[in-house]
Amino acid sequence: MYSDTDSLLFQHPAIETVEALITDCNGAARGKWLPIEKLPTLLQEGVKLPKSAVAQDIWGRDVPRIALDNGDIDGWCRAVPGSLVPLSGTDRIDKAQVILTMFKDDGGPLLSDPRQVLARVVQRLADQQLRPRVAIELEFNLFKKSAEGESLRDALPPESETGGNLYGLSALDEHEALLNTLKDSFAVQGLPFEGVLKEAAPAQYEINVAYSDDPLAYCDQIIRMRRSIRAVAERFGVTASFMPKPMENQAGNGMHVHCCLMTADNDNAFDSGNTEGAPLLKQAVAGCLALMRDSHLIFAPSYNAYRRFQAGNHAPTQPNWGYDNRTTAVRIPASPSHATRIEHRVASADSNPYLAVAALLAGIAIGIEGQLKPADPISGNAWVGDEGNLCLPANMAEAIHRFSQSDAVSDTLSSAFQFAYSELKKQELLEFERRVTDFELETYLVM
User: Fold this and answer.
1) Contact at 8 Å (CB) between 258 and 312?
2) pLDDT tens digits, residue range 87-123?
3) Tens of pLDDT, residues 47-76
4) Is 167 left (phi over 0), alpha (psi -120 to 50) or beta?
5) Residue 254 carries which DSSP code?
6) Beta bridge partners of 348
7) Is the pTM of this model over 0.90?
8) CA atoms within 13 A on the CB side of 262
């Protein structure tokens, strides 16, 4: 990380361009490329962008009720201190990157900016002298590029494959050059890479990211890692995909979030000295479960994401919890007591990390503030449970309705964000619902 232009250029004199990056509600990178001469002004004053830039739909289109109703006014994007890093290119480092976050003209945070949403929840816990410690697991596929004339489906592995060579080292050997280049790219940017493994589905991989006591900076790093994964894969002629469910009969891509809370004395507030965990842990779990259905639109942000939630398919289907149980939505991993933590297993790989962490922390805050108590933990297969149990929203329409009407979402994440996110997701849903799919034609055209 660098704090000024001179120190950056002293180490990397070939840099000619700076990428000013802000993350929108869908986790997409927006912003500008600027000549390096503009970097001092960018760091000191920031840059103006329309407020709607952080609330585009998944295709990068304006949402009328967000962009047009107020004349599409600008917000001030300020550089996040300490976020200036060099970016590795194909043969030399000729570009740098800085993370932006958006403010209103009066200097207040723009609460449709996902980074500001997370900052609000982090502060809520800080007011209770609690500091979140988080880690994320990134799942993604590496698919071959579709050839000219091929459909995107033709580039996927055959559905007839019986397994994905889970934990297979030979699958890592296949992409050794790509993965080594990716590791080097992470090192240039100072990103906390902790290893890679082969996951359950064909062509599916997982990258582990080291723990951090700074959720905001950590999510900056996750955005950078996902951008690097895509860019490096492109150089090697493959597509890196974070699509939640690209293959009908194979496990989808998730983004598991681990979290504990640290006290002012730097102790783990979930640690009880035994495997059960402190009372605060159970309050946190109860809050996560209480908010899970209302915030599911954050964890499953795309039309495709709802295809991932199938019993036995490595994704939870109900708001439940258990000790060392990978079939539940919230898992308490087996670990030394000082490392007691929550593993939130709901988010799809395309979730915005700022928002996924914010929703998790919002649930934790609700549980602690209300001193909530969870139901009994699930033992065994949580997918074979009581059919009367509440399920997570089964489709995007249900998730939008719950999210947009939730007082808990409005209170913890802000009414401004609730409105913006609901509107852009409604626009996306309408686009999908008006489309006629190939499968519908095959089924109904000559019926």
Assistant:
1) no
2) 987 678 999 999 999 999 899 999 999 999 999 999 9
3) 999 999 999 999 999 999 998 777 789 999
4) left
5) B
6) 254
7) yes
8) 14
Structural domains for the chain: 5-110 (3.10.20.70), 123-441 (3.30.590.10)
DSSP state of 389: S
Q: Residue 261, SS3?
A: strand
By CB atoms closer than 10 A (0-12, 13-18, 19+), residue 444 is exposed
Distance CA 53, CA 75 (A): 9
- Percentage of residues of the chain with pLDDT beyond 70: 98
Pair of tokens at residue 402: 């719950």
Beta strands (DSSP E) in 65-166 are: 74-79, 85-87, 95-103, 131-144
Instruction: Map tokens 């599911």 to a residue.
Output: 296
Output phi, psi for 330, to 5 deg. -120, 120
Phi, psi of 213 (to 5 degrees): -90, 5
Q: Check whether 305 has a pLDDT greater than 70.
A: yes
Torsion angle of alpha carbons 259, 265, 269, 272, nearest 10°? 130
272 DSSP β-pair partners: none
